[in-house]
Design the sequence.
């Protein structure tokens, strides 16, 4: 692949890495900075309050999807990507410099709240903006490969955050982490966002968007009214996201908690399993994306849905009784290989469903809603079943979500060979655009 194409992939997806780094370190380092923003006395209550602020970010993601999706369709993909990284940088800086309770009382909490709102807006818009850019900026035979780097960068951000946490825990004292060192990841996140902002300022607009003759003439472009004209596609985005996002959160963010809390594995071993599995998962994404460029998107999506429908229950049961590192790693890798059928290509599939004038919003808003409803609640639902004494009920919940998505994958059209510049335009046989 030529150098210019690699540059587009890097600039288009790197923001996800910083986004997910920031998202991860807030949750991971909250145990160290929670006491800094609330009165001393009840550590558990302080942590709950801090994580309550964390939850605000999930509520802001659909808002960010709507606002930044509109910007992407009306002002261009470059404008949306530049704005998301600006919000990202601002949120990291605010957390890094937030005053403690001893200095400003609850003023520090207010700063945290604003920062999380900005972060939620940014994450809500970044997914669709980068998905749209990566899909449009690639040649038709490389869209699956290029868009797969979205999850490569997302996973890289999680791994970097986990690596930094481990490094600071081994080099800093507990007192230093609680006092000031917890600010380090947010300073690094702000610096990373600043670098991405600089790179994105010089990026080129996609030719698909630039060549759209209605780019600035249509007053309804990027509006909810225009999106309602594509209700079927919006529903497809939500339905195909449902099973994928639940499975993804189950085997990534929830995996460590499940191995330590339910399988009885030590936290250090569970973290190592998660780290190794995520690294292998990250490396699989481009391979699967490239495969979809050869055989189509639907075969991978169907493989994921069939695998998740029939393998989730046995994998989770076996993980619960995993005897050690290698058995847990093997089962985790099997699960993530199945999930790769969704994660590697979901960005381009969604972008390929919509015409240029509504593509960014069409991907952003339905995805953000589905992710908030199913992905963002996955851990809560899992713990709810566990607390109710029927933990296996969660396995069947994941299975049911995958089964719903399977029905969608079996009935949707193939999108691999679609001409992005002609999606939504009248043609003699609009429903016969199938993969060879």
Sequence:
């Amino acid at each position: 692949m030529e150098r210019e194409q690699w540059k587009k992939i890097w600039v288009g997806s790197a923001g996800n890495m910083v986004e997910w780094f920031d998202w991860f370190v807030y949750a991971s380092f909250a145990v160290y900075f929670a006491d800094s923003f609330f009165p001393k006395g009840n550590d558990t209550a302080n942590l709950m309050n801090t994580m309550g602020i964390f939850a605000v970010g999930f509520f802001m993601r659909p808002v960010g999807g709507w606002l930044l999706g509109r910007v992407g369709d009306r002002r261009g993909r470059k404008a949306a990507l530049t704005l998301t990284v600006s919000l990202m940088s601002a949120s990291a800086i605010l957390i890094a410099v937030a005053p403690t309770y001893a200095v400003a009382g609850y003023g520090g909490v207010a700063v945290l709240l604003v920062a999380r709102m900005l972060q939620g807006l940014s994450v809500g818009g970044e997914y669709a903006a980068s998905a749209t850019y990566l899909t449009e900026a690639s040649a038709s035979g490389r869209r699956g490969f290029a868009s797969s780097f979205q999850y490569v960068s997302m996973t890289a951000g999680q791994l970097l955050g986990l690596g930094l946490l481990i490094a600071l825990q081994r080099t800093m004292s507990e007192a230093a982490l609680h006092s000031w060192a917890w600010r380090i990841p947010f300073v690094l996140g702000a610096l990373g966002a600043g670098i991405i902002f600089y790179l994105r300022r010089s990026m080129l607009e996609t030719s698909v968007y630039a060549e759209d003759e209605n780019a600035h003439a249509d007053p309804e472009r990027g509006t909810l009214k225009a999106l309602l004209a594509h209700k079927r596609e919006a529903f497809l985005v939500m339905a195909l996201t449902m099973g994928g996002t639940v499975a993804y959160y189950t085997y990534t963010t929830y995996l460590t908690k499940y191995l330590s809390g339910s399988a009885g594995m030590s936290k250090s071993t569970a973290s190592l399993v998660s780290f190794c599995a995520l690294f292998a998962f990250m490396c699989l994404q481009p391979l699967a994306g490239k495969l979809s460029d050869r055989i189509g998107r639907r075969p991978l999506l169907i493989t994921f849905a069939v695998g998740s429908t029939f393998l989730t229950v046995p994998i989770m049961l076996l993980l619960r009784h995993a005897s050690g590192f290698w058995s847990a790693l093997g089962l985790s890798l099997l699960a993530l290989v199945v999930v790769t059928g969704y994660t590697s290509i979901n960005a381009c599939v969604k972008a390929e469903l919509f015409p240029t004038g509504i593509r960014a919003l069409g991907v952003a808003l339905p995805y953000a809603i589905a992710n908030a409803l199913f992905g963002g609640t996955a851990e809560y639902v899992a713990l709810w079943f566990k607390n109710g004494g029927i933990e296996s009920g969660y396995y069947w919940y994941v299975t049911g979500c995958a089964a719903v998505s399977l029905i969608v994958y079996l009935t949707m059209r193939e999108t691999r060979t679609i001409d992005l510049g002609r999606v939504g335009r009248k043609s003699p046989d609009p429903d016969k655009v199938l993969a060879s």
About this structure: The chain has two domains: 1-204, 230-423.
